[in-house]
Design brief:
- By secondary structure, this protein is mostly helical.
- The chain has one domain.
- It has twelve helices and no strands.
């Protein structure tokens, strides 16, 4: 446990000592703010139209903030994450390979899992801090509106699990190369494929193939979380994908250890 904590602190300090963590968080928050403004402006415009129609018809209908604003915002946060996660994970192993410190890690009294999990949870902590900055929008909505709390909790849980799975993929790709830009690019391509694979099912006439492709899609599993629906199948999917990414990373690190 002590060795894991040592690696975790080392990696987390490396993120926040350099400007990279702050750049990623500021860039993510800036893009998220743009989407929040656009969704909020559209919501207020639609609310005015609904109120005008209600005054004319005499029928007043409650406005669902979660449905008309928060759901779309969270889905777009996942889209922004596709660009941010490669920036978070690209240095995990690539920097050690480039600086020659990978050999020192592998010859130290550390197990492969201690190294991998320390790096993984450090990257995941940065990702959690990144999406955590957007909670300020929820505070604003609670101050000036009346959103439902449980769908918001469910949506952020899904967004965290979504990121946890993709961070594991990014860690694996980073373990394959010493070039951080290559690691970031390959990670983005893989994540984009996992995002779009569900759409390929709509062009396939075979029912079982369509179901398989949609199940493999990372965004398909996030949709229910954002709607406020907690389904253990989606939880199992994200946990399995995260474990698969970490398992591949273990095999990559073990291969490096044996070659060394």
């Amino acid at each position: 446990m002590r060795n894991f904590v040592t690696i975790f602190r080392r990696e987390l300090n490396a993120y926040f000592v350099s400007p990279m963590a702050y750049v990623v968080m500021v860039f993510f928050f800036a893009l998220a703010s743009v989407f929040f403004y656009l969704f909020l402006a559209s919501f207020l415009q639609n609310q005015q139209m609904i109120q005008m129609q209600a005054q004319q018809s005499g029928r007043f209908q409650p406005v669902n903030v979660n449905l008309m604003l928060i759901r779309g915002l969270l889905m777009n946060l996942s889209l922004i994450s596709l660009f941010m996660i490669p920036m978070i994970t690209m240095r995990s192993f690539s920097e050690d390979r480039r600086n020659g410190t990978m050999e020192l890690l592998l010859t130290s009294p550390l197990t492969n899992w201690q190294i991998i999990l320390g790096k993984y949870f450090a990257a995941l902590t940065l990702y959690a801090a990144m999406i955590g900055t957007t909670l300020v929008y929820m505070v604003i909505l609670f101050v000036y509106g009346d959103p439902e709390l449980l769908p918001i909790i469910s949506g952020y849980l899904g967004l965290f699990l979504f990121g946890a799975a993709l961070v594991a993929i990014g860690i694996f790709v980073s373990s394959l190369t010493e070039n951080q830009l290559v690691a970031a690019l390959v990670t983005f391509v893989v994540m984009l494929l996992l995002w779009l694979v569900g759409a390929l099912g709509t062009f396939n006439s075979t029912n079982w193939t369509q179901q398989v492709l949609q199940y493999l899609s990372t965004i398909e599993h996030l949709d229910d979380f954002v709607k406020g629906v907690f389904d253990t199948r989606h939880l199992v999917y994200y946990v399995t994908l995260a474990f698969f990414g970490l398992f591949l990373t273990y095999q990559s690190v073990e291969s490096t250890r044996w070659r060394g």
